[in-house]
Structures are given as structure tokens and as C-alpha cells.
Amino acid sequence: MTKLLEKHSPESLNVEGKTIYVCGCCGFEYIGDLDSEPDDYVCPICGQPKKVFKRKAM
Ligand SMILES: [Zn+2]
To answer: 40 CA to middle of ligand 1, Å?
Structure first.
């Protein structure tokens, strides 16, 4: 039998050791270092600026 490709749900993505920022407007989750983004970075979903993102506790 050929093993089917395993599917990973979003919840099972390995984000350990990474920082998650959540958009305070639409809930979009940015995974990584938001500080490394330019100051004019905006949320890809709702277009709000970086300052609306809140760091999510792991
Ligand atoms: Zn947003």
C-alpha cells in the first residue's frame, strides 16, 4: 500500500520557538519576527499597519 501524504492542519504546524503576532483588526496571524518587517508593513488581509499587531503568548 502506498502511504497517503500526511496532511497537516494549521493547528499542527510547528511554530515552536517562533513568535506569533495577531492582527488586532482581523485576527491574521503573522509568524516570525515582525520587527524585521519595514515600518510600512501592513496586514495582508485588512491593510492595517504593524502597530495593530499584538504579540501572542506562546
Ligand atoms: Zn488584519
So the answer is: 14
